[in-house]
Amino acid sequence: MKPALAFLLMLGGAANAADPAGVAPVSGYEFMEPATRQLQDDDFLNPAFFLLEQGRALWDQPWPDGQGGARSCRSCHGDPETGMTGVAARYPAFDAESGRMINLELKLSREVADRLGAPAPAYESDALLALTALVALQSRSLPMAIDVDARVQDWVDRGRKMFETRRGQLNLSCKSCHEDNWGQKLRGDTISQGHINAFPIFRLTWDEVGSRHRMFSWCMDSIRSEPYPFGSDEYLALETYLAVRGQGLLIEAPGVRR
Ligand code: HEC
Ligand code: HEC
Rounded CA gap, 240 and 153, in Å? Predict the structure, then answer.
């Protein structure tokens, strides 16, 4: 039997009776083995925390301000613990400047470029993951709560459509796994509801930290569908929809997943 077919049959099994659309969302944490949860529970064991050191160094790093002085994130925002409280919980947000959604990674990259005049860190670079983890940590235990106005709603609708559209050689949608089959086993993973409250995460199978968009690409790859670029409108729409779908879930960043 073709592996793809075996895979489909497996997912064709008992569909999930409880559709999360009607019930309170459940964090991916609840689907992890106890040993993986322990890594997230203890900041000293959490392997994502080494990146936070780098994040703090970048936060304090002075850049010439063009007038003989220097400036850093700290010079405008103070301590991340006070200046960035609750910020990550509000992203993605509508960005009037570009007329599109902006997520935390893109916002941070722009802060580096525009306010410090330093080279913008690339998506998924250690520098950007480190800054994202540092800022997201300041929203830990706060509920995800993005602001949805009519402009944002367009992106939510578009994201929902993407979430529900079957794609790839396996002809599965995000919904096929994360809404219709959560709780089922898939190649050593227990399929969760596919929430984004723990990102950036240290993924043990990656052996490194990754962003929400990297996770989307991993899932697209797993159904043999061509991934979109990190930071693309497609992923921003998905991210916006998932933020609304998981509204109220407590932020766990930086999380640990299998
Ligand atoms: C074939 C099943 C499958 C499909 C289809 C799928 N995923 Fe996943 N996804 C997984 C598995 C397995 C994991 C890892 C275990 C887990 O957390 O669910 C995962 C993890 C995730 C996570 C991380 C959850 C967490 O708590 O860390 C997100 C977010 C996610 N997927 C989003 C998506 C999106 C968006 C799509 C559609 C583009 C999608 N997935 C399609 C199987 C799938
Ligand atoms: C010259 C002052 C200045 C510097 C330097 C600066 N910022 Fe900002 N930053 C601002 C101002 C003003 C805002 C509010 C307006 C906006 O959102 O663009 C802001 C907004 C932000 C936001 C969004 C806050 C929100 O509530 O949405 C983040 C995140 C952020 N900065 C991070 C950083 C980081 C990280 C650095 C260093 C790489 C940095 N900033 C450097 C002035 C600065």
Answer: 9
Atom of ligand 2 at shortest range from CA of 71:
5
| Domain range 49-84+92-137, its CATH number among 3.40.630.30, 1.20.1250.20, 3.30.230.10, 1.10.760.10 | 1.10.760.10
Taking the model in full, what pTM does it have? 0.94
Q: What is the pLDDT of residues 57-88, one digit of tens each?
A: 999 999 999 899 999 999 999 999 999 999 99
User: Ligand 1, atom 31: nearest CA belongs to which residue?
Assistant: 194
Write down the domain spans for the chain. 3-7+27-42+144-257, 49-84+92-137
Taking CA atoms, 123 is separated from 3, 21, 44, 128, 232, in Å, by 33, 31, 27, 7, 11
Please write the tens of the pLDDT for every residue from 16-42. Answer: 544 445 578 999 999 999 999 999 999
Write the pLDDT tens digit of every residue in 200-258: 999 999 999 999 999 999 999 999 999 999 999 999 999 999 999 999 999 999 999 99
In this structure, which residue's CA is closest to atom 8 in ligand 1? 219
Which candidate, 173, 104, 102, places its Cα nearest to that of 134? Answer: 104
| Nearest Cα residue to 244 out of 129, 168, 163 | 163
Residue 122, ligand 2, Cβ within 6 A: no
71 Cβ closer than 6 Å to some ligand 2 atom = yes
Pocket flag, ligand 2, residue 156 (CB < 6 Å): no
